[in-house]
Design goal:
With 209 residues, the protein is mainly alpha-helical. The protein has helices at residues 3-8, 14-26, 32-39, 44-54, 64-79, 89-92, 98-107, 109-118, 132-147, 155-170, 173-208. Helix 2 packs antiparallel against helix 7 (98-107) and helix 5 (64-79) packs antiparallel against helix 9. The longest helix is centred in the C-terminal third of the chain and has 36 residues, at 173-208. The N and C termini lie far apart (73 Å).
Length: 209
């Protein structure tokens, strides 16, 4: 078998999350903190993957105000030079619904399938310690775009955070940079929509007066 064929058949990105979530649910221990701990070290990569997944849970409109908060916390920690993620206790102990988590993972399968075909350790200079704070700043800006309650824009920064998280986990600098470009575009889109809504509101107020 050719090496490229082996690469295409690499383990699914989704399987560790789903397998661990199912096992922890059966033992009554499925919480955010336990899931992250079982996935490996308390790395920023897995934290970004898990918390970006939570934004795809079936939740009411405007829930990004809540689901984006953990992403703001962990990207701020990265920006401040923390070596590992330190979750607040209330967040670490938050229980997860395995069925809702499974649906969120399945919603991202079109993205994960494409990533699984190309992931390989490369361009690892982007993960150097001296670059972590700058990377944290960029991620914080993307997380803030997700946090803003702008209709029709939340999906894009969430997907970019997921892609970046996968790139960090797999040490694939190229995928991480693609995620950053996508995240930058999502920030521009969010700001454009925000400006458009603000102009529309001003026009309505002006017409009413």
């Amino acid at each position: 078998m050719q090496p490229e064929d082996e690469h295409r058949r690499r383990p699914s990105l989704s399987m560790p999350i789903l397998r661990i979530a199912r096992h922890q649910h059966e033992t009554g221990a499925l919480t955010i903190g336990n899931l992250l701990a079982a996935l490996g070290e308390a790395s920023f990569g897995w934290a970004l993957v898990v918390f970006s997944l939570l934004t795809f849970l079936p939740l009411p409109p405007g829930s990004s105000l809540i689901t984006a908060l953990p992403l703001l916390v962990i990207t701020l920690q990265m920006m401040l030079g923390f070596r590992y993620v330190r979750l607040p206790r209330f967040l670490s102990r938050k229980a997860l619904d395995p069925e809702k988590l499974r649906r969120a993972v399945l919603r991202l399968r079109p993205v994960t399938r494409r990533l699984e075909r190309v992931l390989v350790p490369r361009q690892t200079w982007i993960f150097a310690r001296r670059n972590e704070r700058a990377l944290g700043v960029l991620l914080f800006v993307i997380a803030f775009a997700l946090f803003l309650p702008v209709p029709f824009s939340g999906w894009f920064p969430a997907v970019s955070m997921f892609i970046i998280g996968v790139g960090l986990v797999e040490r694939d600098g190229m995928v991480t940079m693609i995620g950053l470009v996508f995240g930058g575009a999502s920030v521009v889109l969010t700001l454009s929509l925000l400006a458009s809504f603000a102009m529309g509101a001003d026009a309505m107020i002006g017409a009413a007066i």
